[in-house]
Design goal:
about 325 residues; about 15% strand
Length: about 325
């Protein structure tokens, strides 16, 4: 990929949690950007993006519609694509809509790959997930990119299948590809959509506090919480890197954190709201993706640190402070 000029970038899933953060990161990087999504941008996100530069065009297209996806790519001819469109599914959705999850996360990925090749895209960055590691993410042994990927839930299964499609498509067609395995994330522009079933504990707690509702939560163990704006900036830098050294990168901070410092910040910001620690997840009002009492394995991100430098992430405390300030300016119930 040429390094002398910043190429145009197309983001799929552009109006979701990560997608909006990617649009902001690309705007800050001075990159001409367009998006593809099944839902329009929230007005608050449009207003924010307008303050940072030219608004990206977002085409409303379902990634399962391969013809429509190809038409968008042919229309804009981006040099780089970041494929973030996915259904982040709960167990309940797995039970009732497994085929739809597979269609979006697997068949949709193939549609984007085919469109990339047909339109002359030089680099496709695929957003995968730490969910591909399955049970390896619990315990004390660190998890790196070479840790065997054995997902236990359909979301992780489809993400790993997408990785395999990306790798094979690259071998067959010469498309430059790279995979970013994102850890659990929180931060600005997280909001409920019809393709994302579970919000982070941070947003659940903040939303309840904003409504003056008491939250019952479980004191969680430490994990690699990625702050979404910083994760998006790292992903954009990786997508624009002329010659990445690897084809797969964990995207997460090295430091571990819990939700407890977030509760303390919310107590200060909302002194009339109750926060009650409980022992069992079934007694909590906060819903978790897994038992928060289980010890989490540290996820290593040496590759991306070597590739992009050590200044990618702020401390967990600084991220929480920044997010609280952001939420004070953005009502989480307005999205």
């Amino acid at each position: 990929m040429p390094s002398e000029a910043k190429p145009a970038v197309l983001v799929t899933g552009a109006t979701g949690f990560l997608g909006i953060n990617l649009l902001h990161a690309l705007s800050l990087a001075g990159v001409r950007t367009m998006g593809l999504a099944s839902n329009p941008l929230p007005q608050t996100a449009l207003n924010s993006l307008a303050e940072s530069g030219p608004l990206p065009v977002v085409e409303l297209v379902d990634v399962r519609d391969s013809t429509a996806v190809s038409e968008v790519f042919s229309k804009y001819r981006p040099m780089v694509a970041i494929h973030a469109a996915a259904i982040t599914s709960s167990a309940d959705r797995e039970r009732r809509s497994a085929q739809a999850i597979i269609d979006v996360n697997v068949a949709g990925t193939q549609s984007v790959l085919d469109a990339c090749t047909a339109s002359g895209v030089q680099r496709m960055l695929y957003i995968s997930s730490g969910a591909v590691y399955g049970e390896a993410t619990f315990g004390t042994e660190s998890v790196g990119e070479t840790t065997p990927a054995v997902p236990t839930r359909l979301y992780g299964v489809t993400k790993l299948a997408g990785e395999s499609l990306v790798r094979r498509h690259s071998e067959l067609h010469g498309l430059g590809t790279v995979t970013a395995r994102l850890s659990a994330a929180f931060g600005p522009w997280e909001y409920p959509t019809d393709v994302r079933d579970l919000m982070s504990p941070m947003l659940q707690l903040a939303t309840a506090a904003h409504c003056n509702e008491t939250s019952r939560y479980v004191t969680d163990t430490k994990r690699n919480w990625a702050y979404a704006p910083e994760a998006a900036a790292a992903i954009v830098a990786l997508a624009l890197k002329p010659e990445p050294a690897y084809d797969c990168y964990n995207v997460c901070p090295q430091s571990l954190g819990t939700c407890e410092p977030w509760v303390e910040r919310l107590r200060g910001a909302y002194p009339d709201t109750g926060f009650i620690a409980v022992r069992a997840p079934e007694d909590a009002t906060v819903v978790y993706d897994a038992d928060p009492r289980r010890e989490r394995a540290p996820v290593t991100a040496d590759r991306i640190r070597q590739e992009l430098g050590s200044g990618l992430w702020s401390t967990h405390a600084a991220s929480l402070d920044h997010y609280l300030a952001w939420l004070k300016a953005h009502n989480p119930n307005d999205f």
